From TrEMBL:
This is RING-type domain-containing protein. It comes from the Eukaryota. GO terms for cellular component: cytoplasm. Keywords: Metal-binding, Zinc, Zinc-finger. GO terms for biological process: proteasome-mediated ubiquitin-dependent protein catabolic process; protein ubiquitination. It comes from Homalodisca liturata. SUPFAM superfamilies: RING/U-box, TRAF domain-like. Residues 17-52 form the RING-type domain. One of its GO terms (molecular function) is zinc ion binding. Pfam families: Sina_RING (PF21362).
């Protein structure tokens, strides 16, 4: 009985550039003896790296069609999934590399949960945080909620009179379609202030303005106590 998976794997290996080991593309070049290299390597070669023959100028339509119909292998270390939509898979792949915000650890995103659970204190849904907002700072806390790992990142910029709280989601291999809300509450015995925003689950999210609440000094000054600011952060699932 033919093992179709092994046959497919063999074809994919054949359709790999012998120079840079990436997938041959529809613009790949063939030498007169039939050996192929990708178009990027072809730009830097004057002869075939296998047999030293010259490259053919003919178009190879059938080869291009075969290459275009083949699935791609995920490039993340540890993942060997074959997919027809490589860009989409690698965006959500649990093996995509990530770093720990609290230490020098780095590894596959799907293993970050185990790392922070073993090595760092995790924040809960209603943990009070107190920050000294006199100086300029950036702090990170690991949060594990609803089966997801988040970095809670606080920043203070006295010069700009801005204080911000951001949740950075860490991909774990699952496509998240749930809707979450982040709510931040400042309170005293006399008054309170609440702000909220919808959490966007985007593996490509950088530390920009996504999933972030920014507060001006004019707002938070009512909740300061000798240079300290306390708040509660809630992460709820709609």
């Amino acid at each position: 009985m033919v093992d179709s998976e092994k046959v497919l794997q063999s074809i994919i290996e054949i359709a790999t550039c012998p120079v840079c080991y990436t997938r041959l593309n529809v613009s790949s070049a063939l030498c007169v003896n039939g050996h192929a290299v990708c178009s990027d390597c072809d730009d830097n070669l004057s002869q075939c790296p296998i047999c030293s023959a010259s490259f053919s100028q003919e178009k190879h339509t059938i080869l291009s069609q075969i290459i275009a119909s083949l699935p791609s292998i995920c490039s993340h270390k540890g993942c060997s999934l074959l997919t027809m939509d490589l860009e989409y898979h690698e965006k959500w792949c649990g093996y995509r590399p990530t770093n720990c915000e609290r230490c020098a650890w780095s590894g596959p995103a799907k293993t970050l949960k185990a790392h922070v659970t073993s090595n760092h204190k995790l924040g809960s849904n209603d943990t009070n945080k107190t920050c000294h907002i006199i100086s300029n700072f950036r702090k990170s806390y690991a949060r594990l909620q609803h089966g997801q790992v988040f970095w809670e990142i606080t920043r203070n910029n006295p010069k700009e009179k801005l204080f911000s709280i951001q949740l950075l989601w860490v991909p774990n291999g699952d496509i998240v379609e749930d809707v979450f809300q982040m709510k931040v509450e400042f309170a005293t015995k006399e008054t309170s202030y609440v702000a909220n925003t919808r959490i966007k689950f985007d593996p490509e999210n950088s530390l920009g303005t996504e999933n972030c609440l920014i507060f001006h000094k004019d707002i938070i000054k009512h909740f300061e106590d000798n240079g300290s600011l306390s708040y509660k952060l809630y992460l709820t699932k709609d």
